[in-house]
Design a protein that fits this description.
Rossmann fold, 7 strands, alpha/beta, five-stranded parallel β-sheet
Length: 390
């Protein structure tokens, strides 16, 4: 193994980061970075604070409304038998839109199977996501076109892929050059459950050792399927980063402004050659883990109701209305756009072509092996035997 490059001070992430490493609390704790309260009040933070234009704020609102509609429509399509399964993001819109909009075009994103909002920000056609969950393909988008990887079902594996890709960026000379149009970084998405996986911790070790330009973005939605976060960690997740030698920060994952600000700072730190950062977006999974899950079996309805009061979309709408940044016409326009998106998704999903059975043999290897060729030809011969029969 080659020696890692010289590493700058890895605890430097804002001048007073150490002050936010306090004990965890059920509400996120005093260390929680927040710029917009659940009541829609704008607050400020000494390390992570930005000025947002009215256009940006309206854009965040529109993104979250449309992504929520995508999620609702996909869930309904699954219930009607049009999708095999769907991983819901209800309640996590701010975490995904805030992070997704902080990413620059040259940055690369490694998702799990739930980053529909991030995919939206990267310009991915939502029907391509539906095609994956409908079983039409294995992810019919070009990662290089969107700088957005294919969805990953192997829990935590994408964090190692992301770290390796980030190390490659270092060797390609696109880190720490000072050119904002050239310097790049990587975002690795995962959940609180994945933080217990060995792959994730191995990724932390390599990222720290090689000072890789990667942001580990953990959406802590409180539940690893049915396992609560309290059974996985004795300390807040973001504090784990210190044990690996890089900084961590906890942000209100239902606050799109704070999520954007923290992710932007972490990405810039990575692009500048300052190494990895762990961002814990403290949020809540309002829906099920997937549409095969029944969350009423393991969590209290009172918890769900309390988190509804922290709805990420509602707080932005309150702020926009209170400050005269939107009117009824704008809100109606966004609602109409959401309706149109819903119609497009319903009709487009049903029109997706069924895959050819032989497609399962494509892209298995860069070059087809003899064994795979024999299997493919045998399968094609078997299917051909049914042609002309009724």
């Amino acid at each position: 193994m080659n020696a890692p490059p010289d590493s700058p001070d890895r605890t430097a992430f804002g001048p007073d980061l150490a002050e936010v490493f306090g004990p965890g609390h059920s509400d996120g704790g005093p260390e929680l970075v927040q710029l917009l309260t659940p009541e829609g009040e704008r607050v400020h933070h000494p390390e992570f604070d930005l000025d947002f234009s009215a256009e940006q704020l309206r854009g965040f609102y529109r993104d979250m409304v449309l992504v929520r509609r995508l999620d609702v429509e996909a869930t309904a399509l699954q219930r009607h038998g049009e999708l095999g399964i769907w991983a819901q993001l209800l309640g996590q819109e701010a975490a995904q839109i805030g992070c997704g909009r902080a990413v620059r075009p040259q940055d690369f994103v490694f998702p799990t199977y739930r980053e529909h909002g991030v995919a939206w920000c990267r310009g991915l056609d939502p029907l391509k996501m539906l095609g994956l969950f409908r079983g039409c393909d294995h992810g019919d988008w070009d990662p290089a076109e969107h700088n957005f990887g294919l969805y990953t079902i192997v829990i935590g594996a994408q964090t190692l892929h992301a770290t390796g890709y980030a190390m490659g960026m270092q060797r390609d000379g696109v880190v720490g050059t000072g050119d904002p149009d050239r310097d790049a970084a990587v975002v690795a998405h995962f959940g609180d459950g994945a933080s217990s996986q060995g792959d994730v911790n191995e990724a932390f070790i390599f990222a720290a050792s090689y000072n890789a330009p990667v942001v580990f973005f953990c959406q802590n939605n409180q539940w690893a399927i049915s396992e609560p976060i309290e059974r996985q960690s004795r300390i807040p997740l973001y504090q784990r980063a210190l044990g690996f030698g890089f900084p961590g920060v906890r942000v209100d994952g239902n606050d799109v402004l704070a999520t954007y600000a923290v992710t932007q700072a972490a990405l810039q730190r990575a692009r500048d050659g300052q190494g990895p950062t762990f961002v814990e977006a403290y949020t809540y999974r309002m829906g099920a883990h997937t549409t095969t899950d029944d969350p009423t079996r393991y969590r209290l309805s009172d918890d769900v109701e309390s988190w509804k009061l922290k709805d990420p979309i509602a707080r932005v709408e309150v702020y926009l209305r209170r400050n005269g940044l939107v009117d009824d016409a704008f809100l109606a326009e966004v609602a109409a756009e959401a309706d149109e998106l819903g119609h497009t998704l319903r009709e487009g999903c049903k029109a997706l072509p069924d895959p050819k059975p032989s497609a399962m043999f494509a892209h298995v290897y860069a070059e087809e092996t003899d064994e795979l060729r024999v299997q493919r030809e045998g399968n094609e011969a078997y299917l051909a035997s049914f042609e002309g029969s009724h």
